[in-house]
Amino acid sequence: MESNEIVYVLSNAAMPGILKIGRTTQKGVEDRMSQLYSTGVPLPFDCEYAAMVDDCQKVESALHTAFGPYRINPKREFFEIEAEQAIAVLKLLKLEDVTPEIAADLNKGVTSSEKASAEKVKKQRRPRMDFHEMGIPDGSTLNFEDNVSTVEVCSNRNVLHEGEVTNLTAVTRKLLNNDYDVRPGPRWSFNGELLTEVYQATYGDED
Questions:
Q1: Which residue ranges make up each domain of the chain?
Q2: Which part of the chain is the Bacteriophage T5 Orf172 DNA-binding domain (predicted)?
Q3: Which residues contact 179 (CB under 8 A, 6 or more apart)?
């Protein structure tokens, strides 16, 4: 690795719509991740994205400045923004994507019951994307952000991609060549409208 400095973007099911943008070093990453999930936080954090950078202090400071208007508390690293906003900036400054490693460190010491509690809260607060409920019938075409790739809706939750029935999260992961999942809503559109916008109009919140 070219650097041992890391900047991360975390979410927490107990704080929907809020992200934590912080930094650590490779040597201290495990200790730092274990500190984040303390008695003061009811549910464990999820890593939305993490990257090796040249100077984690400068990169973190730049992100905090860029999203300053959306900072919840000047003394805390929490921001009321979408994950994709922070990720888009961090990707421009990354040396290496270390999201899987940070996610693994976050999960160390987290019990299966704690993980189940977090998943339960997520499901209760945010309904899964249902194409039919969102007014997107079978046979509809969804367009990817590259304006080239498309899928065809074939049920309320599944799509057809390259002759295979799958789900939109899996297709998004494949098209981005990621080894981790990202939310598909901000990357796909229906009739020129982002799925996040269609979701919000249907459910009042984003999936």
A1: 5-125, 141-203
A2: 13-93
A3: 100, 173
